[in-house]
Amino acid sequence: MVNWQDVRLHVVTGKGGTGKTTVAAALALALAAQGRRVLLVEVEGRQGIAGLFDIAPLPYEERKVAVAPEGGDVYALAIDPQDAVLEYLEMYYRLGRAGKALDRMGALEFATTIAPGLRDVLMTGKTYEAARRRGSGGGFAYDAIVMDAPPTGRITRFLNVNEEVTELTRMGPINRQADSIMTLFRSSATLVHVVTVLEEMPVQETADGIAELRGARLPVGAVIVNQVRPSPLTSAALADAQAGRVDTAALRAGIVTGDLADLPNMSDDVVDSWAQGLAREVVQHAERMSLEQEQSDRLRELELPMLELPRLTGGIDLGSLYTLADELRAQGVHGFEGRRVP
Amino acid sequence: MTSLTTGRGRQPRTFDVDAMLDDPARRIIVCCGSGGVGKTTTAAALALRAAERGRRSVVLTIDPARRLAQSMGLHELDNSPRAVVGVDEAGGGSLDAMMLDMKRTFDEVVTAHATPEKAAAVLDNPFYQALSTSFAGTQEYMAMEKLGQLRSQDSWDLIVVDTPPSRSALDFLDAPARLGSFLDGRLIRVLTAPARAGGRMGFRFVQAGLGVFTNALSKVLGGDLLRDVQTFVGALDSMFGGFRERAEQTYALLQNPETTFVVVAAPEPDALREASYFVERLAGDGMPLGGLVLNRVHTSEVPTLTAEQSISGADHLTGSPEHEFAAAALLLHAERMRVMERERRFAKRFSTAHPSVSVVDVPAFSSDVHDLDGLREVGSYLAKKA
What we know:
A: alpha/beta, Rossmann fold, 8-stranded mixed β-sheet, B: alpha/beta, 17 helices, elongated
């Protein structure tokens, strides 16, 4: 069980292809359940959130995208780097005319497409602004922010970019801003969750990424194991198959009793070859399960809370996001305790 | 199999990988695709297969998995090719491998294009140091730069290139041009304007623009950083031609008939969508496409037993303890058939949209490939000889 009641910023990272965006969306739904407001932030410019929630591409503005279980709102924001620069300049420096001049000279393009350091500053800056923004009632505008963050290989550099900024600038408004962002990111109000699947490379990257995050004093939350497949086999049958022992006769009997096909017209040879084929599939499955077990043991050595999400065979749609959110809630994920909307 | 028409719609042509590898006119193979689809493994398997079929080949990897890198004798600080041990060289071929060191490649470009004093000034500049390690597109630009270097060295029959694990496969093609246009862009011209624009008619305009611009930048960034940037730009000035020219040359190399692109994807919607974009882009830019490698395709040992049959069979068997095992095996089989069916649907969608693209499937392995034998096995699937 996890206790994330005081966490305001959830950063979700993971190797490409592990389902990071899906998990971030499900986490936002789970945290928003029972009347809370959660903002899901996308920083990679892929419009993955719009795709998941099956809506038109998100503009650069916060939009309600879903209603959470038992009431509650999920808003989403896809941060557009160039708009974020202009907004940032306007907000902090009131650079109306100069901002336009920067745009004309290609400085915005420079800042956002060429130098990812600056891009990262803007993404983290905008997220920070949303996390500390106050609503009309004086409380926080959002109970939590969930960030669909860059992949594990880049996450530490991304979150740490403001550390570099403080070193580069030494003083001035940018320096102060960068310093406040680092303070939030290193505080107990922030958690970085790593999504993985039970395969060798993603698990290795998870371990490496967590070591890096810890080295940079960034708070690591949970390892979220995605696409977990429970085995339909009993553990005894699994152990037998792992040792290469499969009861092919039982499979043959099952094919006959289960009335699988047009049996009267099937030759014994075909039934035999089906039984042998199924036996090979059972062995392959057992091999994969034992490799997954190995990877699961490696993750356990990280000594972090582990959450598991099932593999959904039909692919991911809006309905399955709710299924995953319910799984997270069943494993103890729920929102900010301080606020409950009647 | 050549484009047959069957009752179930046209099958894609099979990608003849060996013909591509054996063609002496083929000097460069570029493996592209979105992240996490097995590009590096495919590149290494192609290079190894080419080597063992008699070609002197080299593979340029970007970010190999640790164990795969170790098995090829690659160590992190290498930035030049080394012979891979354990390759069958009976056919007269050989395999070298290298892993790209982005920063070092950038440093080498600077050193090659400037006087020693200027190079030293650039390499010491804090702004350059940040740029050379974290510039978006630097990895792509440097991968292309390295490819250009390897090609001009002319020591190999075949160069196989893995591309950086970017979000979009197109980044590999676009990033160098972006970097080039930045170096040639208005921003740089304005920053360097005081040095260049003296005596020109437009000077006052430039100066006025520059005033607003530098004031804004100083306000935001503080004076020190701006001075660093200006020093950097000044020092880099003499190299711009060099950078841009090289980026253009390498890009032209990619359009040359001696180059072939291999697009790698997994049978999933996102990866295939990226593959589609890429294929369209290659066609638009007149770049030669070899074919699509569809990685991690699920297969079945009992392809004639459908998912529906297995599920109904498992239903029949539930409740009788002596058939518990058979019922579980049938459920496993049903899941596998469903996954395969989904994958086939996605693959078919791609082939319908791109009927001229030839395709080869590589099955899903139960564990990651991390030795030469594993690469050989992938190679034989690629060549349909498994």
